[in-house]
């Protein structure tokens, strides 16, 4: 058997090489390697619970090289592009896109190679509820009092959005009413400029309000005057105090109302404040006077004192 194999060994080797060359020629001619691009939907894996995750790109374009027959045997769903959020942190960050290919494919490139993510923790906080009266009651009638079922409610959402919310506001229409009435008031989350804050949820979207009307009372718009204790830490300067709302309608006996030009807030402490922020404060309402709300939000702005280098 061995002698048989050794016979014409040179010719057998030549034949083997010719056969191999012919096979390579046929494969290159009939099934050549080609390049192509496909678009793949981006997947997110290991996303943490309790966070809102935002990114701009949903589609990844990848450039590939493979035999023509390989492309014919797959579709776009066989290619994977994903970002792993296992160690993601809150805030803005850029993470790499990982690509998975079927066997026989060579990755030439992908675009984009990295994706910018904004990760926001879902939080909640309490905010004051302010009800605003609009329109007018019937002639010779005024609003004697407004009572609401809740003075504060909870807002929930991504931290950056929730931080922008200052209060929940609702509107009560006075359409020539002459009798007391109750109403369910829809609420909206608004910022310092009374603009709606999107992408947040009020855990209670309405409050109940009871409106009491009366004859012979006077109403008047007065300003709100925030009053703070003088206990701000020595290394800070108080730049400003601003109430929201900064004006309010009061109702009461004409003799009492005529003497009031503004309402003070209760005095509040600045002793633990180390940065600018907001605080909900009660109003000091004189006896015999009613208002549409008993609280206001005071915006406190402070700054660090500049050290005297001399």
Please give a handful of descriptors for the protein shown.
310 residues, mainly beta, RNA Polymerase Alpha Subunit, Chain A, domain 2, 3 domains, 7-stranded mixed β-sheet, 5-stranded mixed β-sheet, 5 helices
Care to describe what's here?
The protein has three domains: 34-112, RNA Polymerase Alpha Subunit, Chain A, domain 2, CATH 2.170.120; 121-216, YbbR-like domain (RNA Polymerase Alpha Subunit, Chain A, domain 2, Beta Complex), CATH 2.170.120.40; 217-310, RNA Polymerase Alpha Subunit, Chain A, domain 2. The protein is 14% helix and 52% strand. It is built from five helices and 22 strands. Strands 2, 5, 8, 10, 11, 13 and 14 form a seven-stranded mixed beta sheet that branches. The chain is elongated and about 130 Å long. The mean pLDDT is 86.
Short description:
With 310 residues, the chain is mainly beta.
Q: Per the principal axes of the C-alpha atoms, what is the gross shape?
A: elongated
> What series of H and E elements makes up the topology?
HHEEEHEEEEEEEHEEEEEEEEHEEEE
Instruction: Assign the CATH architecture of the largest domain.
Output: Beta Complex
Helix content: 10-25%
CATH superfamily of the largest domain: YbbR-like domain
Query: How many strands, which pairing sense, and closed or not: the largest β-sheet?
Result: 7 strands, mixed
Ends: how far apart? 107 Å
Class derived from helix and strand content: mainly beta
For the record, the count of structural domains works out to: 3
- Would you tell me the overall average pLDDT? 86
Specify Rg, calculated over alpha carbons. Answer: 36 Å
Count all strands and give the number.
22
Protein name: YbbR domain-containing protein
Pfam family, one: YbbR
InterPro entries: c-di-AMP_regulator, YbbR
